[in-house]
Write a structure and sequence with these properties.
Beta-Lactamase, Heat Shock Protein 90, 5-stranded antiparallel sheet, 5-stranded mixed sheet, 11 helices, 52% helix, 22% strand, binds adenosine-5'-diphosphate, binds magnesium ion
């Protein structure tokens, strides 16, 4: 009996030593605490990590080794472990003997039979540093991109302004000429012997008409370029017509025909930023117009087709200017890509951002037998 007991005790001791050896080899801090959180045992890893010897640790607790703001949460964690049996991955900051702070993740497990707590401590300082660094780098990158995007928006607006002034110049040329001729007529009238008041009336009306037309043009343009961040319901056909109006005189001057074809049963009501949509469309139509003029296309045309494709409204803008080379098709939506000496290469990039990012649609380009085809596809779900 005595001998057997002795053997059992020896076995137990050697098991305990084995366990210690395993604990000491572990790559994490392992410690045993009493119900108050005071250390009863800590493996080598924990001692090294916290810079305390085992003798010193007997006088410390997992609460006293916490940074001040984590003292109370550590106490609560010990109590919770006792009540609930386990507390997993509780994060806190520990303070080593020399005052170094360590970000730690602790798991506590309560052993009822001995009223002790096993605590595993992992040093996650490096992980957190890595994560913080990653977060900082991502923030920096996002900020840089946002800035770039804002610059592009600004450039795009400047480019639009330039185009707008050019278009106004086109719209005004004819009425301005007329006004010039009328003014000369007035001098003639005042020099003649029989002053004709009827003719003066006619001239006055004509002048008012021209001036009204000119002021309407300015209104159209300034409405068009107003920045509005307010989403609203709009009829997409009306938007298309408003957009075309801005290049109407240019189309006439260049003998370019513009056709709008609408398939039966197309849903034209949309919800979103109408001005942005018109801007995107104008960029595309402007390009067609531009290429038709540059390539001196005889009987040039631009077609705008509305087709309902399941849940999607497809709006295709096509022309007969000869299209885009296969190589350039891959490039045209990239910012600053242009084949024009005086181009800026922002138009299509902005159109794509507006349609895809802001309207959840898609914008793509291809060629048909006559020229380029740009297709805007908008999901009908956008209609609310
Ligand atoms: N309808 C079209 N036909 C042929 N090429 C086109 C057409 N639309 C756009 N492109 C090509 O795409 C390029 C990029 O267009 P865009 O982004 O509007 O910039 P930009 O008009 O300043 O060149 C143009 O330079 C042109 O080469
Ligand atoms: Mg352009």
């Amino acid at each position: 009996m005595h001998l057997q007991l002795k053997k059992s005790l020896k076995d137990l001791r050697s098991k305990k030593e084995e366990l210690r050896a395993v604990f000491d080899l572990a790559g994490n801090g392992i410690s045993i605490l009493n119900e108050k959180g005071t250390f009863l045992y800590a493996n080598k890893f924990f001692q090294t990590m916290m810079e305390y010897t085992m003798e010193e640790l007997y006088n410390e607790s997992c609460i006293s080794l916490s940074s001040p703001e984590y003292a109370q949460p550590s106490k609560t964690a010990v109590q919770r472990a006792i009540q609930e049996g386990i507390v997993e991955r509780f994060r806190k900051i520990c303070v080593t003997k020399s005052g170094k702070q360590i970000n730690a993740s602790m798991s506590l497990s309560y052993i009822k039979s001995t009223n002790e707590i096993v605590m595993i401590t992992s040093d996650i300082t490096e992980d957190i540093k890595y994560q913080d660094d990653l977060k900082r780098r991502i923030n920096h990158e996002v900020k840089k991109r946002t800035q770039q995007y804002e610059i592009m928006c600004h450039q795009s607006r400047l480019a639009s302004m330039g185009e707008m002034i050019e278009a106004i110049a086109h719209q005004w040329r004819q009425p301005l000429n007329s006004l010039g001729i009328i003014t000369q007529g007035l001098r003639h009238l005042s020099n003649s012997e029989n002053f004709d008041f009827n003719l003066l009336n006619e001239i006055e009306n004509e002048m008012i008409e021209k001036i009204n037309f000119m002021s309407e043009t300015i209104d159209d343009f300034s409405n068009f370029f107003k920045i509005s961040k307010e989403k609203k319901y709009f009829n997409i056909l009306n938007s298309v017509k408003d957009t075309i109006k801005l290049v109407d005189i240019q189309l006439k001057n260049e003998n370019i025909t513009l056709n709008i074809n609408i398939e039966d049963g197309v849903n034209l009501e949309f919800y979103g930023l109408e001005n942005e949509f018109r801007q995107a469309l104008l960029n595309i139509v402007d390009n067609s117009l531009d290429v038709l003029i540059r390539r001196k296309q005889h009987e040039g045309f631009i077609n705008i087709d509305f087709v309902q494709n399941g849940n999607f409204l497809e709006l295709s803008i096509s022309d007969n200017a000869g299209g885009i080379s296969e190589k350039n098709l891959q490039e045209i939506f990239k910012p600053y890509f242009t084949t024009k000496e005086d181009g800026n290469g922002i138009g299509l990039y902005m159109s794509k951002v507006i349609i895809e990012k802001n309207m959840n649609g898609s914008l793509s380009a291809r060629n048909n037998e006559n020229g380029a085809v740009f297709t805007i596809s908008l999901k009908s779900e956008e209609q609310k």
